[in-house]
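Suppose you are handed a protein chain with no further information: no name, no annotation, nothing but its sequence. What can you learn? This example shows the usual starting point.
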Amino acid sequence: MMSASADLRNASDSAERSQMPGPRDNTVAIPPMPDYNGRVLSYTATAIVIVAGVLQGAFQQWHMWLVAGALLWPHIAYFLTRHTFLKNTPRIRQKMLTADCIIGGGFIGCIGLVAIPSASVVLMLMFSALIIGGIRQWLIGCVLMTASILGFLALSGSAPSYQSPLLTSMLSILTTGVYICVTAFYAHQQARALMLAKSQIQSQREQSIALSHKLSKYLSPQVWQSIFTGERDVRLETQRKKLAIFFSDIKGFTELSEEMEPEALTELLNHYFNGMAEVALRYGGTIDKFVGDSIMVFFGDPTSRGPREDAFACVSMAIDMRNHMKIMRQKWQSQGIKTPLEIRMGISTGYTTVGNFGAENRMDYTIIGKEVNLASRLESLADPGAILISYETFSLVKDRIMCRDKGEITVKGFGRPIPIYEVVDFRRDMGPNRSFMEHEHKGFAMYLDSDKITEKERKSILAALDDAAERLRHEGDPGN
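A reasonable first move is to predict its three-dimensional structure. Written in structure tokens, the prediction is:
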């Protein structure tokens, strides 16, 4: 008695809203059969059956009044669902379908259970209930329709004969078949359109993900992750947090830039930044920016493991960077770069202002505060290959990091001199049990980090060392 086509526009809109931002050049329009059209079709079919039944004597004369009701009800239902308080009612389609089941049951009861017309109405109602509401709506519809049939049957009584004339039966079957075929066609069209919409949404989602990954290259991974997971809003806001701040630059880079061609210098710098960025991300650092040959990294935002662990991760990263720099320097020397490049680093820990700074249409996620200035100052005072840290950083890592006292410095913004310390190495790596070893002479360089060597690599390295030792012994033997 109403449209059997499921209205998939809401599902399609929800799917589009759930996808990530992306291009929407082509939109798929799903062609549903509106409830109004379906209801007009089904009630018109019922009206035709009533007229035929009355003319052939299968129904009583007063049943002609049901024709007017059948033709008016679709318009009344449309008005109720679009222009009254019912338009905002959840699951309004299912509620209107229950009304149709009650009306259909009343019609069957009024005609006294004449077989084929009654079966036609039941088929249309059950077909609608199954497609629109599934098994649950079908069961509800069966119960309500049965109750309505029994109620009206008690009032009007059963028909003298349950058989209907041939023309009435044929029209009942024909109109029901037309209704089912038309609504099934629309349901098929919707299914095809929905599959196409899902395919398009998936394609747009993939494009959006690819675009977001490209944009992520311009943001620190932690910041990008917090934005795209909804943990952080993209707006001008800041907060005070205790962070560990790291600065580094390359000693001798200015002199090297005067000797090298810009293309070669760019390649060297990108190689350096790529290696250091991998180290920083491995320890969970938020890369703030690259400026010239300088790197700024901080720990403690957007994620933090606590001030002590953040400071330790920052110092551990600096030690790893220093070791990694030795490996890169050896590679650069093999490429003909004779200028020895050394990294110098500074670390401070304290409260800073962190968040989005700038304008509404162009902002930068960074930190400001006197601790940032202190870290930058420590980096500029550090000797090549050295890591200078503030007293607060030292107090947080001293149980795991060996440091030496370097006296005090005066820094703008601090009321009194600041004690500073130089990082020596991990305490666990001091003495015979240290994992990192280095030895360098003209014509020879060795950097060994035993913690990072696999068993397969260990055998290959031992073979290479045995071969090198044998050659040195052979060439150094006066008898040869």
